[in-house]
Amino acid sequence: MSSTDLILGAQIDVTAAADELVRGLMLQPWGQVSPSVYETGRLVTLAPWLVGHRDRVAYLTGTQRPDGAWGAPDGYALVPTLSATEALLSALIRGDDCGLAAEVLMEPAMRGLHALTRLLAEFEAARLPDTPAIEIIVMSLVALVNAHLDVLPGAGIERLPLPAGLNEAPLTMIRRRLESGETLPDKLMHALEVGGRSAAGAPAVWPTAAGTIGASPAATAAWLAVGDPPNPGDPARRHLEAVALRYGGPVPVGLPITVFERGWVLSWLVRAGIECHVPPEMPADLAAAIGPAGTPAGAGLPPDADTTSVALYALSLLGMPYEPESLRAFETPTHFCTWQGEEGASVSVNAHVLDAFGHFARTRPSRTEGYAAAIGKVAAWLRERQRADGSWDDRWHASPYYATVSCALALGEFGGAESRVAVRRAVRWTLDTQREDGSWGRWDGTAEETAYALQLLLLVGGDEPVTEAAARGYRYLRRVADPGEGPPLWHDKDLYVPVAVVRAAVLAALHLAQANPRVVEIACQG
């Protein structure tokens, strides 16, 4: 029986579903990530020789919205629409064998161009979503689309404008450094495709042992794009083929995500009190991945404070506390950065740092003094960034429910008495924003966001009137078709779903609800 069946059945066996989920992490060690319109579009352009080319084109045409765009509202459509439209134009101009007549392929391309004209007219650079490398991605793709318009007869569309405020200097610098053989910051490897022709065979860039560059199919394809298809034995080509075959053509925005996925899944499940079977290799692998500078989310990515702190927290929850000194590499005078040189700051990263320091200090009382200052600093920084309505928002997730549950749970457990008011305000915001059908969500109600709201209410709700709201949310979760197949909400170059992570969050919420007899009683009455 699948985890979905177990969740939807009349008798929910959360432990069995969690056991199955954890086993799946071992069976798919690269991770479980939804396909990406952005990344798939880049492979259509950069690697038409790669197995699954027709399927990638079909994926793009099949996921276009009725208005001609791709992706989510509120500016999130810009990057995937640029990528998909540019990819379709590339296929048309090259005359690719896509299984579609040229006039059939032209129709979604033209609709994409009209959508881009609208989207680009609406946004200034300051209003773009805070997704990784968005400014240089938009600039590079607008230039590619405009180059196609220069040679495409009868398009009837003027060259696309850039959003006001974008600066060409960063993209120019990246390309010059690639051409000169200089190394780039590790974080830029994930978006190497913005280098265009300068990325192809860049001498200072090398694939990992797994064959990936920057844990990104697009970055890997950009490095390979030097003319003829690469040798079949090339490690980077083998990596791309493995990813394309696994997904049936389209590809995800980031893979592998081994450490990230395992850390988040285990921390959601164990924090909620689910007693699932964790293979001993899994925490051993997590511990081995943490070096003096922390751990990356997966091979090809730089170490980051988010993955490092969640891995440390998961190990501590599992009874294997690991000294969190590696997090010091990310400490600033006021907070912890995701990585050195980060532009902006993340509340969810700092909430996870608070979890890691706080739980380690709790399990190792003799070490409490060594981390007290950092715990107090991070807690104060998080309280200062709570919005007036009681929520938080974040640069790594589109939904305020993810940021709010991260901050409220960390502050509720490790933030001290000074954080009680902030936690109560977060609870009140959550109660006030529940939808009529019992769900929660930024755009529509989703299982993922409802799971975050339920965890917040049932773990730190205190004496607030949470029971009725939790029962309604529990009833909603019982009705959803598949909690791991919701809309993409996590930030990367475009939005994505880390499927196993979302399923773990939902299982955690279900377990907490079922552990509360009054919640179950009210839910059954409904």
Description of the structure:
Pfam families: SQHop_cyclase_C (PF13243). Residues 345-479 form the Squalene cyclase C-terminal domain. This is Prenyltransferase/squalene oxidase repeat-containing protein. It comes from Sphaerimonospora cavernae. It contains 21 helices and no strands. It starts with a helix and ends with a helix. With 526 residues, the chain is mainly α. It is globular, with a radius of gyration of 23 Å. α2 (14-27) runs antiparallel to α20 (499-514), α11 packs across α13 and α11 (258-271) runs parallel beside α20 (499-514).
- Cα gyration radius (Å): 23 Å
- Tally the beta strands: 0
Helix content: 40-55%
Q: Please provide the ordered H/E string of secondary-structure elements.
A: HHHHHHHHHHHHHHHHHHHHH
| Class of secondary structure makeup | mainly alpha
Oligomer: single chain
Mean pLDDT across all amino acids: 92
Shape, principal axes of CA atoms: globular
Indicate the low-confidence ranges by residue numbers.
Answer: 1-9
Please, how many helices? Answer: 21
Distance between the termini: 27 Å
Strand content: under 5%
